[in-house]
Design brief:
This protein has 316 residues and is mainly β. Helices cover 12% and strands 39% of the residues.
Amino acid sequence: MKKKLRLTCLLFALCSLLFAILLTACGGEEEPADETTVTITFDTNGSPNKVASVQLEPGGKLPASYFGTGNKVPKYPGNRFDGWLNGSTPVTAATTFTKSATLTAQWVRQITVSFSFGAGVSGNPPRAVTIDEGTALGSKYPTPARAGWEFEGWFFNDTLYTNSTIINTDGETFTLTARWKEDIDHPPEYADAPAIHPGRHLAEVYPDGLSVKAGVEFTIQGLSSNIERGGGFLTAKWYRATTPPEQNNYSGTVVSQQSASDALPHDLSLKCTTNEQAVGEFWYWVEVNNYNEKATITKNALTKTMNQLKVTVTGN
């Protein structure tokens, strides 16, 4: 009898334990249901442009318009968009989302580098370029040419900037100025300069005069005459003197002379190639005549002051 009673008690205890376990299981928290959509929000990280949140299906991807140059990419003046981060993880067009997330825009500050030829130097400098802050110009580094001058490089104050110099600045613009050294071994030749008629003067073509070395051949070229009126023929005489010519006084030594045929338009290249053996200062000027019209073009088109070119000769 006692044995049967013990067995009954043991069975009752086991049933009670089983019931307690089932009760606990039934009374616990329910498993969360899977999201039917995920919400992607965007933090533009300082940009005044806001990007609206977007709903995706679980496992969905952002469209390409949210990347690169797409129309959903925010703009930030002075900066370049460098992608999205989900926490510390880069997000691409291939990224899938299984739960909602906030993406943060990444920016790289940019610098506009402009160029100047320097005070008193004519011509159009290279166009400004844009680079990332903390980088160099690299292939965007321009190398300008200037007849009669050697380009020494781009400078900021007295610091030389090469194509590999890292550029950092407090502002969004940065100006580099060209530095030049006179190239007396290769004086300028202006084969394509505007015509002497009606009024392209030597002083305009050579605003800084001309500097050469003694005994080195040089060319004064930069005046061409394309006369579309009159007949006959043209002649051009180059004169040289050791003192500045006086007003209306064309006296001097003829060092070069050219002529053009009867054909119209008259096309005359006004070119003088010579050399100076002595160190000093010399003056050159050109006179053009249309003999059919009995007119000296220089009397009307060129004033004496504007038509003279000062040549400074230095030692070897």
